[in-house]
Prior knowledge:
Two copies of one chain form a homodimer. Chain A is of the alpha+beta class and about 260 residues long. The first copy, chain A, is about 20% helix and about 25% strand. Chain A is globular.
Amino acid sequence: MTPEQARKAFRDGTVSPTSGWAPGYTQANLIAVPRDWAYDLLLFAQRNRQPCPILDVTDPGVTSTPLAPDADLRTDLPSYRVWENGELVCELRDATRLWRSDLVAFLLGCSFTFEHALAAAGIPLRHVQQGRNVSMYITDRDCRPAGRMRGPLVVSMRPIPADMVELASRISSRMPDVHGAPVHVGDPGGLGIKDLSTPDFGDAVEAEPGDVPVYWACGVTPQAALMTSCPPFAITHSPGHMFITDVPDETYRIA
Amino acid sequence: MTPEQARKAFRDGTVSPTSGWAPGYTQANLIAVPRDWAYDLLLFAQRNRQPCPILDVTDPGVTSTPLAPDADLRTDLPSYRVWENGELVCELRDATRLWRSDLVAFLLGCSFTFEHALAAAGIPLRHVQQGRNVSMYITDRDCRPAGRMRGPLVVSMRPIPADMVELASRISSRMPDVHGAPVHVGDPGGLGIKDLSTPDFGDAVEAEPGDVPVYWACGVTPQAALMTSCPPFAITHSPGHMFITDVPDETYRIA
Lengths: 255, 255
């Protein structure tokens, strides 16, 4: 399946998480905010590049992107969330009716990209083996604020065999536009996480004997910042229901 | 000499290009624009990351940066340029009197950082051997515009022995925050450069037999964009007279 075929399926009404769709092509987080908030979000993303790596930012009202020139950002994701004053007000399949002419769309890198690279190197992904979503946690680290945007760092956690942690770190460090190197390894208390079995987002994932928890900055961080910062209006993708671009994953890997 | 000692010398009145000062510490380009233009410049930098890699952006009126917490951006560079409507109006040693409370300061990565890494790998730097400034050229490639900001890509060129071009590419590609991999190798016509012996900025540099010209995106690009885009007011560093940060070069190298 090509990215174009995947986007057409979503445009035609298919609702599905995008993990495994159009493999080898970069998927992106979407956050669209009014122009009045765009500087704050752009600066927030710049100051917190590990959780918020920017792949593209549109001009106000523009609903296309060089990342996939034929795509329409209002219709080509499988599911959208609409936010008012930091609260989720609805989820829908087509955002055309609610898209505003002053919206600036941010497309941010997604860890699906480095997961492909980890798997290709033989590193087991426990959440995939267990058919679950990755575990995500709100940490006690604050992102560096920017204007009205502020919020905590959110991390995803993957249990990795101890003798593969260095390899996983090195592979992901060479993909800085999709969260880059881990932010922490080992003791969850180092990030203020009380209990790995009760993640704040996603599913609990079981570690195998000899696994070590490895934590990466997570693309849910900007959604957590929306909830904390309460812009009057925003449209995002629904978690796991990403925008599929035409850009090969390899583009974001440093040789 | 530490970065702090270098900055004190400049604050006390020393005017000197900063090449070779506080070796091993990252130097940065400075561009400060009014808040009204900051979104356009931030988006321009984001859309043109190779020539404009952002290391930090201040809040309006703030004259310090986490890159060097004790520094004052108005006094601690050896020389400043003041711009009005895209024209250079003066050069001065201390920008305190002209600094405005609405100025947002951008600190951008500088190729001095990857030059240290090239030299450490045994790659000869002809301009250094010849005691000259690096050659810089305005290309026929336009940067991707952002709001009112637009301008051509400017590149620096270094003659590199043919059998070391791959090594130079790989080393610099692992430093994406200081311009990253070359944008072009070989024929200057591929970038619309008519004559390598007449650079638009810096000095002509002589190639040795067997050298190939290698072109990197250059931090002069945003100054060229100032000249093209004509914001009402801006303060920048003088070419070669950079801001010396407390951040080790290694911070920007991907292992």
